[in-house]
Design goal:
Helices cover 35% and strands 22% of the residues. The chain has 435 residues and is of the alpha/beta class. The strands form three sheets. Strands 7, 8, 9, 10, 11, 12, 13 and 14 form an eight-stranded mixed β-sheet that branches. It has a six-stranded mixed β-sheet with strand order 2-3-1-4-5-6, with helices on both faces. It binds guanosine-5'-diphosphate (2 copies). Associates with the 50S ribosomal subunit.
Length: 435
């Protein structure tokens, strides 16, 4: 689980993207084979000790045809709004510049935890030069070299120390969900339609993230909470139209949700940008429901639903576990299917399978279809066990973890799904060497 968000700010060429890549480096290859959102990344994840943080390189968020000063201004605003800890990067090579001073001024006013990180301190001589940055009035400074990988660990230690605790325990026992999708797919209409039908709204909870308003309510004895991606219910945020920024917003909401509703605009059909959104939903390891909205605008006969289902499956192969519902937020058609679907998917996300029952299924699967030998060596699964939920995570104890190939993992996953369902939730399968 993501424990908080770190934003990197600083003027161009101080080394933000080099530093960013250094931070997310070791995870990159894992993340990169998931579709959609990986190119041109401005956000990633960094593991430090037992924690995982999201990292944003604000330098990658740009507004077209705006003067440079505007752009930095926006980047700092976004960092202040979205991050729990801000890393302000400056460069020892160039020294204190006027843009550094402008950024420092904004950060001081923000009351956010800020660490001043002096980059390009490649050697000891440059360390002396770094001291002039004390003049920015941000207190202690950390000297690093992103290129050489020096000092990074100290920065992350400090981040861990000052990261404010996330207060999401108040959502225990509730099912939290968020609605994501391209602009105009009907996110706010859907939220309103769900809330309209006599739901008892408990009260608005001031979210952990700045001005996000999460709405808890009761329905048929169950408690739910809609995690707002800010822009959804309060329109007119200044930077909302910048796609990369709306992605960050969505990521924040996804982090805090049990189940994600991924909306498609039925009046337009599937668009390229939907793939980015779907990728976000899948990568997070949360429950996912695909909601085909604006069903009222679709000309249908008795085959339409089947045809569209096929199309959705073909476009979002990796979301094959997600149920699809067809609704109209405008007319209210089939809106009553949504909460039961959310409840069911959340139940599946938290399902635990008894070890002996699981082993029967997996060992049977192996017997029916043993893994193909690889360089003369054959994978042997001895036993398995479910080690986690949300998402359900299974460990296979094997002779050699290297021998578990993607296709065989897929086969095992399918067998688990055939036996136990798990509709709506991704499944993780890991291999460990049997000791
Ligand atoms: P950004 O514009 O802030 O994202 O900066 P970049 O990451 O693109 O880096 C700008 C330039 O600084 C590139 O040529 C980098 O190779 C260089 N650079 C980044 N970090 C270091 C460092 O630690 N030492 C040195 N000497 N150069 C660095
Ligand atoms: P958001 O940007 O994703 O929050 O989308 P909105 O909820 O603001 O909706 C965008 C537009 O689509 C508005 O004009 C809505 O009235 C319209 N809309 C939303 N849901 C439906 C629907 O189910 N059917 C039809 N016909 N229009 C819809």
């Amino acid at each position: 689980m993501i424990k908080g968000t770190i934003a990197i700010v600083g003027r161009p060429n101080v080394g933000k993207s080099t530093f960013f890549n250094r931070l997310i480096g070791q995870r990159k290859s894992i993340v990169d084979d998931t579709p959609g959102v990986t190119r041109d990344r401005i956000y990633g994840e960094v593991d430090w000790l037992t924690q995982t943080y999201r990292v944003i390189d604000t330098g990658g968020i740009q507004i077209d045809e705006q003067p440079f000063a505007e752009e930095i201004n926006m980047q700092v605003d976004i960092a202040i709004e979205e991050a729990d800890v801000i890393l302000f990067l400056v460069s020892a090579k160039e020294g204190v510049m006027s843009d550094d001073m402008a950024i420092a001024k904004k950060l001081v006013r923000s009351n956010k935890p800020v660490l001043l990180v002096v980059n390009k301190v490649d050697n000891e001589k440059l360390q002396m030069d770094a001291f002039e940055f004390y003049s920015l009035g941000l207190g202690d400074l950390f000297c690093i070299s992103s290129v050489h990988g020096i000092g990074i660990g100290d920065v992350l230690d400090k981040v861990t120390e000052i990261m404010p605790p996330k207060n999401i325990s108040s959502y225990d026992g509730m099912t939290s969900f968020c609605v994501i999708g391209r602009p105009n797919v009907g996110k706010s209409s859907l939220v309103n339609a769900i809330l309209k039908e006599d739901r008892v709204i408990v009260s608005n909870i001031e979210g952990t993230t700045r001005d996000a308003i999460d709405t808890p309510f009761k329905y048929e004895g169950e408690e739910y909470i809609i995690i707002d991606t800010a822009g959804i219910r309060k329109k007119g945020k200044i930077y909302e139209d910048i796609e990369k920024y709306s992605i960050l917003r969505a990521l924040n909401a996804i982090d805090r949700s049990n189940v994600v509703l991924f909306l498609i605009d039925g009046s337009l059909g599937i668009r390229e940008q939907d793939k980015h959104v779907a990728g976000l939903a899948h990568e997070a390891g949360k429950g996912v429901i695909i909601v085909y909205n604006k069903w009222d605008t679709v000309e249908k006969d008795d085959k339409t639903m089947q045809k569209i289902t096929k199309e959705i499956r073909a476009h979002f192969l990796y979301l094959d576990y997600a149920p699809i519902v067809f609704v109209s937020a405008l007319t209210g058609q089939k809106i009553n299917q949504i909460l039961p679907a959310i409840q069911q998917v959340h139940d599946n996300c938290t399902l635990r399978i008894q070890t002996n029952v699981l082993n029967d299924v997996i060992l049977d699967a192996q017997m029916m279809n043993p893994a193909k030998p690889h360089n003369g060596k054959q994978l042997k699964i001895y036993y398995s066990s479910q080690v986690g939920v949300e998402p359900p995570t299974f460990v296979l104890f094997v002779n050699d973890p290297e021998l578990l190939h993607f296709s065989y993992k897929r086969y095992i996953e399918n067998k688990i799904r055939e036996a136990f369902g798990f509709e709506g939730t991704p499944i993780r399968i890991l291999a460990r060497k049997k000791s």
